[in-house]
Each structure stands twice: as C-alpha cells, then as structure tokens.
Amino acid sequence: MAKKKETVPQRNATHILSYIMKIDQSIINGEYPNVNKLNKKYGWSFSRSTIGRYIEILKNDYDAPIDYDFQKNGYYYTDPTFYLQRVMLNEGELLTLSTILPLLEQYKNTPLEESYRNLMNKLIKMLPQNITVDSALINNEVHFISDPITKLEEGVFENILKATKLHCTLQMEYKTAQNTDYEERLFDPYHMICQKGSWYLLGYSHHAQAIRLYAMPRIKNCKVTEKKFSIPKDFKLEDHIDVQIGAWGNSGEKYKVEIEFVKGLKTYVMERTWHDGQKIKENKDGTVYLSFETNQLSQVASWVMSFTGGAKVLNPPKLKECVQDAARAILANG
Could you tell me which residue ranges the WYL domain spans (predicted)? Predict the structure, then answer.
C-alpha cells in the first residue's frame, strides 16, 4: 500500500513568523513543547531539524532565553518574564489602527473588504497580552459618516482587477445612467477609481472608440478575455480625473477655479485643505478667497451648491453657468 503523503505546511516568511509565534506562546503557557507536542497541537508535520531551526531563530533573532528541560521533555524560557514582542503599539497607535476599520465601508461588496478586515484583526491579535485599551476607543466612541455605498455584481470587481493588472480586454454588459437596457461592450481597463464609496473604471471603450469612465455598479456579466492591450504612452491619469476633486464629470481641460465664501464660513473654510494646489486667504471684509486648478467643473459645481448660498463663483464663467443652470433646475422641480 502506498504511503499517504504528508501535508507540508507553507514556509514563506509570513508563515514562518506565525509558527515561531505559536512556539513562543506554547512556551509561555508552560506546555514545555517539543516536536511531537507541537505537531500534534497545531496539525503540523515538521521534522526535528525544522523545529530546531525555528528555535534557533528565537534564540538568535529575538534573543529568547530558551533552553530544553530533559526531565519535562520540552523547551522553556529561563527568564519567565520573557515574551516575543510581536507588535508593540501604544494607546494612540492602537486607536489609529481601530479607526481604520470604519473606513473600510468604501470597500464593501469587493474582495478588499474581507482582506483588510482580516489584516486588521490579525494585527490586533498579535498585540502582547499586557496591552489593554478602553473598549470605548475601539467600538463605541469613534464613528464615521460615509457616503451611500453602491453595490457590485458578484465577480465584477475580481475580473476588473485581474484585467487591469494583466492588460486584458474585458467583455461585459453595460448600461448608462440614462438607459434601462444593458448593451454588450468591449473595454480596455486602464485604472480603477473609488470616489466617495463608488467604484469607477477608466479605460478605452471599443464602442465609443475613446477613453471613457464606466460606473462599476452598472456592469454585469463581466469576463476577462485573452485579448491583450497596451496603454498608450501619452496617457496621463491627471488628464481625465482630479484625485482632489473627483473623477465623474471631466471638463476636458483644466480651469482656474476662484470662489468667495461668506464671512460666516471663514473658520470652516480656512481650517481645511480643499486641494493640494489651492491658494486661500482672508479678505479685508472677512470673506475668504479660494482658488485651485481642476478639470472637474461639474464636481466643483455640486460642491459649491452644498454651501447653500455661502459660496460664490468668481471664475471661470463656465462654472458660473453650471451652478446657475443647476439652481434653475432645482427651482423648476420645486
């Protein structure tokens, strides 16, 4: 009868560290671990020499005061206060770590959500037992208000990510915001964008024969084809989106935006960075002047209107028209 092949545990750097940490924990627990005990407890199939190498790593890399007790047939620490320092975080750093979790809302309905949560949970589990933090800092006292999250069809995110990495054309069904019916499309994905919880795909549309921005929630039956594409050498992401303002509503050229805010908004406006290239100053009458360059006029128009009359567009004229048209439409629908 053929001998059953033993399963060999993975041994990359990450897994080796996890094995060493388990050995350390067994020693701290007073279990006096040896090769047989460790293999039985954790389901490993390590040889004596492999465990020996991990013990040597503990000794040489982590200065572990480790020795072997022949009477109890296992390893122990000669200094009972020693433990393997996994991730030493102070309370402030742990608070920072904990507040990252709510930000994962923008990755809902994508494989990144589970991956990031698992990563955060692993980091927290790696904390030494002697670090305790008020649970209010982790769960109750810090809240984030996020934008509404769009839903993606299962498999869409994975296939788009794969095609973007491999430079493979996508075959999909897509509908625009104005249409109710889906149409078959071929699309070369250049870049994935997440704007305020919504995912978009920038690339070359074979249908339009031009670069287009697709809303990923409107994509279904997405498949990665074997057809390869190359991104044009003259393609520049900043020509199509403004990472400071948004991606949806490219005006085709950059404009210098100039806005004046009422005096009552002075503190609110001046304590923020609205754009990396902004110029901001307080006027003599207490109003605030803000300017920056962007190719996202429609996004800026929406932002200006969110101040409900507290922001006045000085330039460019095209932005003034956008805001005025939107205001008239609101009044007409009221």
Answer: 156-224
